[in-house]
Design a protein that fits this description.
Elements: H1 21-32, E1 38-41, H2 50-58, E2 62-66, H3 75-82, E3 88-90, H4 92-104
Parallel strand pairs: 1-2, 2-3
């Protein structure tokens, strides 16, 4: 059907946290396919999101990350950046405009 339902569960933590980004991204890829996903990974501790971002890229989606200079903690964005999953690594103030250009088709 066309209805989408979002829920949080009380399953075991993943990447030492709950909720976690990796299971959310797995769910999004399964529901929408990776090619329809435009993902920005912002400042955060650890590598949560890296495995999910890989699935997004493998499915044809796009991943960008916040740069180290403007991140409070470069764990999460650094993990996707150093894994080679990003189309761009940008300062925080450039991420919104980049996403807008990409979403509207003026950035390819």
């Amino acid at each position: 059907g066309a209805d989408v339902h979002v829920k949080l569960d009380q399953g075991p933590p993943e990447n030492y946290c709950r909720p976690a980004v990796d299971p959310m991204l797995r769910s999004l890829v399964a529901s929408y396919g990776g090619g329809k996903i435009l993902l920005a990974i912002l400042t955060g501790m650890g590598s949560d999101g890296m495995r999910g971002a890989k699935l997004v890229v493998e499915g044809g989606g796009t991943v960008i990350a916040q740069d180290q200079a403007t991140s409070v903690v470069w764990g999460m964005p650094g993990a996707v950046a150093t894994a080679g999953l990003c189309s761009a690594v940008l300062p925080l103030n450039e991420i919104g405009p980049w996403l807008r250009r990409r979403a509207t088709g003026s950035l390819t």
